[in-house]
Amino acid sequence: MPMPCRRPEPGACGTLVVMKNFLTCLALTCVALHASAQTLWRDAPMNASPAEILALMPEVQDTSLLQRALDRSALLQIPSAEIAGEDFVVTYHFESNRLQRIHLQAKPPTPERMQALLQALQLPLRTRYGLPISTKSRQDMVPGSIDLKWGFRRMTVLLQMVDGRTVDLTYSANLPVRPGGL
């Protein structure tokens, strides 16, 4: 014989709905925090080891001994990656064996191609990251220069025309500095 249904006490259903909504919000918040800007360029995870980057991106190779002598953090690179019709050198920088920065650099042969490249890079960056948080004015800026920065809690993206001939695009992890090296 089936058990007779008891009517819930007044307010019990309301409490269950509130609890269900709270748990749903908590779960979505955890997922959002885990998914927020944890990768740099081409889905390279922040804090990845050199071995993890090599496994993820087969075109990556060790940097030259000369480059390592000039910058000890530059451990890996892609010597030629085509982006927006131009060849970029992509360098992966590590601190304590963990990925901290990816630096992309191109040197288009003409001023027209330089401006075209800067425009081509800005559109996808603005689409993905929104409006830049700053547009710096350097004293040594060449006419037509770009110096744009997008900043987030865990990542910074910087697009620059450095010397009138070089385009730099840098993705950096924003990791908290531990006091006293702890």
Account of the protein in words:
This protein has 182 residues and is α+β, with helices and mostly antiparallel strands. The chain has helices at 12-35, 50-56, 65-70, 111-129; strands spanning 61-62, 74-83, 86-95, 98-106, 134-135, 147-151, 155-161, 167-173. Strands 1-2-3-4-8-7-6-5 form an eight-stranded antiparallel sheet, with helices on one face. β2 (74-83) and β3 form a beta hairpin. The longest helix is centred in the N-terminal third of the chain and has 24 residues, at 12-35. It is globular, with a radius of gyration of 24 Å. Mean pLDDT is 80; it is low at 22-37.
What labels describe this entry?
alpha+beta; 31% helix
Helix content: 25-40%
Strand order of the largest sheet: 1-2-3-4-8-7-6-5
Let me know the number of strands. 8
Low-confidence stretches are 22-37
Rg calc? 24 Å
**Strand pairing plus helix content: what structural class?**
alpha+beta
Biggest β-sheet strands, sense, barrel: 8 strands, antiparallel
User: What portion of the residues fall into strands of 2 or more residues?
Assistant: 25-35%
Q: What is the number of helices?
A: 4
Helices and strands, in N-to-C order? HHEHEEEHEEEE
> What is the residue-averaged pLDDT?
80
**Between the first and last Cα atoms, what is the distance in angstroms?**
66 Å
